[in-house]
Amino acid sequence: MNSIEAPETLLWRESRIKIPYAWAAGETASRFFIEIRDRKKIFGTKCPSCDKVYCPPKKTCGDCFSNCGEWLEVGPDGEITGFTQALYEGGAHPVKNPVGGLILLRGASTAMLHLIGQCPLEELKIGMKVTPVFKENRQGNILDILHFIPAKQNHG
Amino acid sequence: MDKIAVIGVAQTPFSPNKSGETYADLAYEATTKALEDAGLAIADIGNIITTSNDFWDGRTISSMAVGDSAGAAYGEGKNISTVEGDGTLGAFYGMTRILSGSYESTLVLAHSKLSEGNNHLITNAFFDPTYERAIGMDSLTASALQAQSYYNRYKIPPRQSALAVVKNRANAIRNPNAHLQEELTIEDVLRSPQPAPPIHEMEIAPESDGAAALILTTESFAKKHGAKPVWIEGVSFCAEGHRLGERRLWESPALRQAAQKAYKMAGIDNPRKDIDVAEIYEACSYQELLWSEELGFCAQGQGGAFIESRATQLKGELPINPSGGCLSAHAIIVAGLVRIIEAVLQLRGEAVNQVEDAKRALAHGQYGLAGQSHCVWILGKN
Ligand SMILES: [Zn+2]
Question: Which residues of A touch B129 (CB under 8 A)?
Fold first, then answer.
């Protein structure tokens, strides 16, 4: 009997996994997105034990393991607490070479991961004031905010 | 805690594309080598843990798919259980199964092939689908946000994180299992492009294919089989919150806590003095600096000065990643298990870059975006 020898060439089976999902946003995120969609207002939730204001809002404060029952409006302006740019091709990028930023909205204690626009990377700074640009046609998702832009640009 | 021994270790060589081998082939290679190292047969193994991630394998229940290659179908079939996470977590679970009293031995296996999927899309799926995923970030950009936060907080100059690359890739030259082995200068590293500023291309751990396995046993089992044991003196696993925007990215409370708990178990007061060698999981160069701080090797904000002091070089006071670390071979999932394996080899006196008279070693694994969870192991010779 012949033993198994390495073949001359090796083969791959190429395919992709594509499975539709509908992730429930839940009561908290649904309300957050509806406020943005219908009124261009941004809300956070407050933890009753540590007073931390979560934005994006969440139902549970992980630090205190308690229920964040109170809603309050935050922002819409805020400041950048971190940023980077994806300078490579990526199938998940919503725009070419997206600048991802952590945005701490006025009155919030936690930062929102979002896009920063209309400012070259070299000019961005931690602590820079930013303001959101809302999309014209809002669908009730996180990209109803198109991106955040430096606040001074908004006022001329 | 009852004494638990590591009596067998094995890893495949790591490379960018192991196209001649399937996951099952890699699992079989690591398992048989670990059994051989321990002087055991598959019949001797009490239970099996396999460690993997379904997204990287491109299939569901990826851990069960390699079960028979790890010996789970042998005889009447063995008890097999699975962990989704870093290999250090698989080992942690493997250890607790022995401590439960149900088993005398556990084989822990980890495998992954980063060449087969798309790391950007897979790690984008780490993000919350409702609030965050559409922003398009991934594990690299998450690390970039952490690096920026850390550099900015403590004014770490880029040359200090580049030093981790220079050191580790040079250490890897003698490691036949490493994926990247090269003599580099700080300038080479800092001249490489920045795919996600402030991180340079050469500061990112490579995407590797490979597998690793180890065998854990009770003290009596180790004695009965005449093995060359290395002992677990302390271990802890801690996690922090998930969202990047809720974390203080310039520090790692989860690692600090895991380290302190492991030190307490092992009776370590001064880790810098009491530990002879450390193998830590750095997915990007800055992490070696930041993790050094949280492991208590230096004060907060001093990770850059610490590596610059040459204390972590092969001949330094506390060599870090003499194997070349994850910057030289990085099969996610497997990478943490390899840290334990390299620590065991150091304590046996069999490492490629052997630290003289190493009696106590630290191994560290992490899992999640920007080091959300950490597992710290203290291993000893006696
Ligand atoms: Zn709270």
Answer: 21, 23
Q: Which residues contact A18 (CB under 8 A, 6 or more apart)?
A: none
Mean pLDDT for the stretch of residues A39-52: 97
8 A C-beta contact, residue B222 and residue B6: no
Residues in chain B: 382
Q: Is the pLDDT of residue B72 over 90?
A: yes
Are B244 and A113 a contacting pair at CB < 8 A?
A: yes
B110 inside domain? yes
Q: Could B132 and A142 be called an inter-chain contact, meaning their C-beta atoms sit closer than 8 Å?
A: yes
Give the 3-state secondary structure of residue A36.
Answer: helix
Query: Comparing C-alpha atoms, which of A143, A142, A145, A121 is closest to residue A134?
Result: A145
Q: How many domains does chain A have?
A: 1
Average pLDDT score over residue span B188-216: 98
Contact at CB, B130 and A26, closer than 8 angstroms: yes
- Provide the residue range defining the domain that includes B82: 4-118+207-224
Q: Who wins on pLDDT, A5 or B330?
A: B330
Instruction: List the 78-107 stretch of A: residues with Cβ below 8 A of B.
Output: 81-88, 90-95, 98, 100, 102-104
Residue B281, domain member (yes or no)? no
Share of chain B above pLDDT 90, in %: 97
**Is B37 among the domain residues?**
yes
* Number of structural domains found in chain B: 1
Task: Provide the CA B97 distance to its chain's centre, in angstroms.
Answer: 21
pLDDT digits (tens, 9 = 90+) for A127-150: 999 999 999 999 999 999 999 999
Q: Does residue B145 carry a pLDDT above 80?
A: yes
Residues of A in contact with B249 (CB under 8 A): 82
Average of per-residue pLDDT across B218-244:
94
Q: Does the distance separating the beta carbons of B197 and A87 come in below 8 Å?
A: yes
Q: What is the CATH number of the domain that holds B27?
A: 3.40.47.10
Among B19, B136, B194, whose Cβ lies nearest the Cβ of A98?
Answer: B136
Residue span of the structural domain in which A89 resides: 27-153
Domain assignment present for residue B181? The answer is no
